[in-house]
Specification:
Distance between the termini of chain A: 54 Å
Radius of gyration of chain A: 21 Å
Shape of chain A: elongated
Strand content of chain A: under 5%
Oligomer: homodimer
Largest sheet of chain A: none
Chain lengths: 225, 225
DNA sequence: GTCATTTCTTACACCTTGTAAAGATTACGG
DNA sequence: CCGTAATCTTTACAAGGTGTAAGAAATGAC
């Protein structure tokens, strides 16, 4: 994806490119309609310099998106997927993904409005979806997850439940902890999760060290109107 | 929301307004960056006429969104919510919603990028979310759904699983029927559904049931690579 | 120190949004 | 019918954004 086609890209140019991408990610995240001019000045360069690196505004956006995608994938790779119960690995994966790419909600929504052909779109999402898929398939093979549902569908379910959780947090209807616990519960249910070996699954596996019978999900429990 | 403040809006004006909104919905759905000029000509009027009805492009967009929201709400109200098992009512509701508002995916995504304050955003989504919530609460009261999870969270879960299903269909990875069945299964699991009276719900009930059960959904079953 | 790369400056053409005022039409009420 | 007011159209303008272009200045590489 980064061929040595260019014989010699000056260090100067790399610095500019990085600065532009940094500024783009930062500004576009808070205000998706930021002009190229604003991005350029924030990066300390001129608008023409931006156009020297990215042929169009749209290409700049996709480059910014690719950058945060890489970031998220790197974070996901940090969590080892093949250790322990698949359910735990899956939650680790979601957590890692949310900690990085989840910090750019506006940017991530902008992606779906870019006129990308389905192929390109799939290419972009593939790395993150593939990692989810691997864990889900492992869980299915060990019998931890329901094996009758297609992994692709379960990947979509996982991603969208993650969106639901972060959406509720953004809307201020849930705290991060409440959302995490609700996501935990609902995701494992949707996957048809059962305890892998001998692990007790009271309440789908309570989070460790969440003592205090009090405050065990204020919003999680139904206030019954 | 539509006060008679205007003493006399001529039939002429109403026709123009409707034509503009029609054109806006249609064009923006296929190409969200359509110019006001294009919308105007498609509606058979001039750009200034559009500005006579909508003070800005953004207001035009929100008006178009309100229009399809009304459409969806009307369709949802057509399905009676208080009859039969809550699970069935919920699926009817989702079906109705997907048949109408689900036809404008681009437009519905654009909504989330509009710089609306949380209050306005909530106002807009409230009608559809409220109807979901009512059915979910009814299911919780009858014991059909898990009463420990907050209705708000389950509403978010329902909406986002609906997105997952339509997303998989749009991506060409599932047929409408496959997606409907997968959504059915996963949604009821996530809600902690149990049979209301005597209806057999083999999943969630007992056995791993990995056995016989021949073809019940091509993509639904795991091809196991 | 030379040379190629990169950046800056300046300039242009085009499109889109939003505003404005005048005149031409059209619908509505009497 | 006919006048009046509402509505639409025409024409015009200002501002801001995107994309392109060319020459001069700088900066890094060797």
């Amino acid at each position: 994806m980064t061929p040595r086609q260019a014989p010699h890209r000056r260090a100067d140019a790399q610095r500019s490119r990085a600065a532009i991408l940094d500024a783009a990610v930062q500004l576009l995240n808070t205000h998706p309609d930021t002009s190229v001019e604003a991005i350029a000045t924030a990066a300390g360069v001129t608008r023409q310099t931006v156009y020297a690196h990215f042929p169009s505004r749209e290409q700049l956006l996709t480059a910014a998106l690719d950058r945060i995608t890489e970031e998220a994938v790197a974070a996901m790779d940090a969590a080892d997927l093949d250790t322990g119960p698949a359910a735990d690995a899956l939650l680790r994966l979601l957590d890692a993904s949310n900690r990085t790419a989840g910090q750019y909600p506006v940017l991530l929504q902008k992606i779906s409005l870019l006129p990308v052909d389905p192929h390109t779109d799939h290419e972009r999402h593939a790395p993150v979806a593939d990692r989810l898929k691997r864990v889900i398939q492992r869980g299915q093979e060990t019998g931890e997850f329901d094996g009758r549902l297609s992994p692709d569908w379960l990947v979509a379910v996982t991603i969208n439940l993650g969106h639901a959780a972060s959406g509720e947090v953004d809307a201020g209807r849930m705290s991060s902890e409440e959302a995490a616990e609700a996501l935990h519960t609902s995701l494992l249910r949707a996957l048809g999760a059962v305890a892998p070996t001998g692990t007790p699954t009271r309440e789908e596996g309570a989070p460790p060290a969440r003592s205090g019978a009090k405050a065990r999900g204020a919003k999680l429990r139904n206030p019954r109107k």
